Amino acid sequence: MKQPVTIKLQDLLACSPTFAKLLFKGVSIREVADVPAASVGSVGVKHKGRIYAAKTPRLLVKVDGAPTRAMLDTGAEVNVITRAAADELGLPVRTDLLLALKAVSGDTRVFDGACEDVEIDIGGVVNHQTLLVLNKSEHTLILGAPFFHDAQVTFEYDDAGYQYARMLSEDRERVATVRVCAPQSRTDRERRVEQDVEGNE
Asked: DSSP assignment, residue 137?
């Protein structure tokens, strides 16, 4: 029993919430709350000039002719629409499918069904997509990898730092380039313009 044992503080805190409360008793709630947090589609988190989280590209699309705000998510393996949006747009939902989503965090969410062959129109460029239906989501419509592959989506930036998405129609006859994200801040935009001016002198 007298043999020394090495325990990391992080392991001890993880195993004993009571010890963690005692250890951090002097830390005010305000100090803890000041930690920057990021979420999907966040406005951006910066610290000492470095960007730790950035805006997610968003744009206005037509879903079967009705205007809807969409998020372009390069990390999503499926296209997702909320049940409320699907109902409001009058999209038929197939419910005889058993589909689930496993998030990066490990959480599993079951889809309510799927809307098939839905027309997604962006600036006159049309692609038909399958949208999986979730009862609740932070975003009304998420266009993920299936849309990116079908529309051959690429991103580009202008000199001021604005982000654009370029996409093709299913028949490859039409191309649209749409601005999807502003520079992270006005300061960033001004700094980029100043650098361009200095480079041209």
From this structure: -
